[in-house]
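Support case: user asked for a sample of complex input and structure output to validate their parser. Sending the pair below.
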Amino acid sequence: MRRVFLFAAAALAMAATAAGAAEVKLLNVSYDPTRELYKDLGAGFAKQWKAKTGDTVILSTSNGGSGAQARAVIDGLQADVVTLALAADIDAISAKAKLLPADWQKRLPQNSTPYTSTIVFLVRKGNPKAIKDWSDLVKPGIQVVTPNPKTSGGARWAYLAAWSFAQKSPGGNADKAKAFVGGLYKNVPVLDSGARGSTVTFTKRGLGDVLLSWENEAHLALKEAPGKYEIVYPSRSILAEPPVALVAKNIDRHNNRKVAEAFVNYLYSPEAQEIEARDFYRPRNPAILAKYKANFPNIPLATIDTDFGGWTKAQQTHFADGGVFDQIYQPGR
Amino acid sequence: MTAATIFSPSTRSRFPGFGLSLGFTLFYLTGIVLVPLLALVLRPFSLHLEDFWTTISAPRVLAALRLSFGTALAAAAIDSFFGFIVAWVLVRYRFPGKRLMDALIDLPFALPTAVAGIALSTLYAPTGWVGSLLADYGIKVAYTPWGVLVAMIFIGLPFTVRTLQPVLQDLGRDLEEAAATLGATRPQAIMRVVVPMMMPALLTGAALAFARGVGEYGSIIFIAGNLPMKSEIAPLLIVTKLEQFDYAGAASIGVVMLAASFVLLLALNGLQVWAAKRR
Amino acid sequence: MKKTRSATDDPPLLRYLLCGIAFVFIALFLVLPLMVVFSEALATGLGPVWTAITDTDSLAAIRLSLLAAAIAVPLNTVFGIAASWAIVKFDFPGKAFLVTLIDLPFSVSPVVAGLIYVLVFGRQGWFGSWLTDHDIHILFALPGIVLATIFVTFPFVARELIPLMSDQGREDEEAALSLGASGFATFWRVTLPNIKWGLLYGVLLCNARALGEFGAVSVVSGHIRGQTNTMPLHVELLYNNYDYVGAFSVAALLALLALLTLALKSFLEWRYADELAAVHRH
């Protein structure tokens, strides 16, 4: 009985995908704040691909919290390319669904990260609470807006940036870092599930004194509402590497490996690096980074590999169930 | 007695379509509802029973369940109270705009929950029409557990009003008149006659509002602060667990909620039997 | 409170008080949220609203929502008719339990409704590997969205029809049958005309909920812009895209659909009050 239904469902599915088969389709499953970036990059790539091969590329994107997106790909969302907030989420796709090789991060240049970013503070015009550095965030009466590290990639980078600040402070150690991060999250009134949700909470809903934000997201907020916010660069932050990867099994099934490979390689091309820089992501290309250096102040950045022993370890220690982040919210500690 | 006689309907000789209608009903129910729910119920038991217990007795999960069930209960109580007044006003009084008010009652049912969510959070945020007024008195609704309550009151209202309205209509005024003739004061007549007669409907309405509130997701995530231990509802925790690839954990919380809704439905059916007997 | 002369009329003061409470409550919880939707949508005039709604992605979302409802609602309608026919016209053991099971989706959290299909059709689920091998997409495609929609709107038609049909009894059909009408003809000529307004009412509710479902669909949709985003999901997407006017424009369109549903429903109630009397007791 169920089979009859499945066949009906399958027929529907095929009808839904059969339309417009003449074009090349590519599905990019991405994290929250890249909406504008991949709109621009998709247009640039489509133009180039059309000139080169005459084919029309239709690049579709799905945006959401990085963990949520990885979960959807694991459950069968037909991503050709994943561009998530951090390596751990792509590792999960590789480990749980075996859709791409375990060493995926070595398959593309520079840790599979064509652009990087960091975590900055977005404050209200004039910085009324005089927030200058991480140490200001744990003061009483300061409201910090940041998403839930359990589901948002940006939030995990922000958490680790705070942690590394506390640990690198004079006399810092893991216990002090834990207490510091705990104090910070005591000042968080809302945990949205994704970075964009937090930005909306901070900007549109007017909640909080400071938003812990992706650098690109903060610049975008400035652009959307000129004169309402300011960006504050803390004394140190973290090198956030949002990686990209081909979902090998899916592109083989969709027969679009050529275009998918061309797309991820395009992300490293000078043209794409320009677009990324214009959308406030730090390009890997040194010449283009230099050209836009006014937007990207040079501050000391911790890295996930040297300071936290890689994502697998950081994920296990801090964000797994019962990890440090959960302990912060346990009562009586 | 054979199976055939057990299942032979009493009116079989006259009425056609028993096999077809019941067969299709069972087939559809099984395929759409029962099999998938079975997948949910069985999922936590792919682990050991202890793991199921560890998941649902974690402080964060307990806090979320407490928030969902506690707030839904409070919302159901508030909806019953105001629902009673609204139903009373709609049945007993004549006033301009009555038909409009009557039609509007169903709005929370017809309005998509996501729309309700962004509307309520816009309204009750510190920058919103109502939120800014409340902020002057230091009251915060959006991004606190109060926000959860507001959203649950919103979505539960039609269920209490719509359950009370027809019963109140049927009740008529004879009983109150009789009570008055027997010397009861008006408050006595209401408290001793009307409210007890309305009890099954009040409870049914409250139970429906409660059931809807416990499971609600769309409108609440926009207005609650989603803070663990504070304003994180159980359905959100299911989504969060899912997004951390913890399928068994998500299913465990899902099973608890499913069990609760099932018990609630059985209670509701019991209520209806009780109400039918009192009629 | 004081004793009044007329036994069943409330004193004027109490009337005003109760009316006042009802008005304030309805205004605060129902009217204001509705007004917010329209006022935010129209914040910059009608032009941007039109642009937002006729945007290709918005149109795709509208088409998807309508398509999902167009599949889910008729299926649930056929189910509702079959279920109420079986339950009302026949006696069999376990009937009360069957009614409870039909009601179950109403009280199941929409998130759980989405989750169960992930557990069945997801790559890690029961049929996951079989579906992958045969390249059949249920989740993150139309079938998954339709399934989630069917689940959350499952009981609505049946819930409206069961009380209505039990009120009407079996006499009409028995008469037709004794005159030699076939079962199908009896249903078509006798039962259906008797229940058509109740049926329409149930379909209306079912359709409103189908167009507006968020939680369940959100879990199984995949959120691909222009492809698997339904209208409520598109509202969320626009809202998260700094496009508040766009978000509230699509929200306003959904609110208008809701109001239209309410208007039709009120009209049905007013016009066919007698035939619907049983429904009110649901």
